[in-house]
Amino acid sequence: MTKIILNQREPGMNPNSDELARVILERIGLNPRKSGATDKMHRTLLELYERSKEAAKEKDPKKSVMTVEEMGYFAGISRQTMYDYLKRWLDLNLITKTSFIDNQKVVIGYKLNGNTLETAFEKSMVHIKNNMELTLKYIGELQKIIKNEKISQHQQGRKFEEEIMG
Predict the structure, then answer these.
(1) Which residues of 2-35 are buried (b: 16+ CB within 10 A; e: fewer)?
(2) Is 110 helix (H, G, I), strand (E, B) or coil?
(3) How far apart (Å, rounded) are the C-alpha atoms in residues 52 and 48?
(4) The pTM of the whole model exceeds 0.90
(5) Separation CA 124–CA 87 (nearest Å)
(6) 41, 75 in Cβ contact below 8 A?
(7) CA distance from start to end of the chain
(8) Beta-carbon count within 10 A of 42 CB
(9) What angle do CA 136, 85, 54 make, to 5 degrees?
(10) Is residue 93 within 8 Å of residue 124, measured between CB atoms?
(11) In this predicted model, what pLDDT tens digit does every residue of 52-62 receive, in sequence order?
C-alpha cells in the first residue's frame, strides 16, 4: 500500500519552472521523503513533459517514453531507487507504463498519462476523487453497520432481561 502525503507548499514570487515543478511534486506527495535523498526529482517531471510535447509535435509516441534508467538519471538517483519512487507516480495515475519495439528489442518505459502535464494531472485528480467517493460510501456503510449493531445489542439485552424476569 502506497502512502500519499499531500503538502501545502506554495511557490515564491515569480517562480521559474524548476521551482514550480518542485512545489507541484511536493504538493502531490511525489518528492523523496528522506531528507537529502535527491533534490532533482522535479527534473524527471519536466523531462516527461518535454518528451510528451516532442512526441506530439513529431507524431511519434515512442518519443514520450522514458526508461527507468533515464528517469533515475534526471532525478539524480539510481535505477533501483527510481523503481521505489515509481510506485507513487503510478498509484496517482500521473504516468503510465508502456512498451514498444525499437531495433527488434522491447523497450519498457513510462510516459505522462496524457499529452500535457495538465491532462495527466486531471487524470490523477479523477483517480483521487474516485477513491474519495468510494471511501465516502464505506463511511455511510460503516454508520449503518454501527447503528444496526447497537440495535441488535439492545434487543439482545432485552431478551436476556425477559428471560431472567420472566
Answers:
(1) eeeeeeeeeeeeeeeeeeebbbbbbbbbbbbeee
(2) strand
(3) 6
(4) no
(5) 14
(6) yes
(7) 54
(8) 23
(9) 100
(10) yes
(11) 999 999 999 99
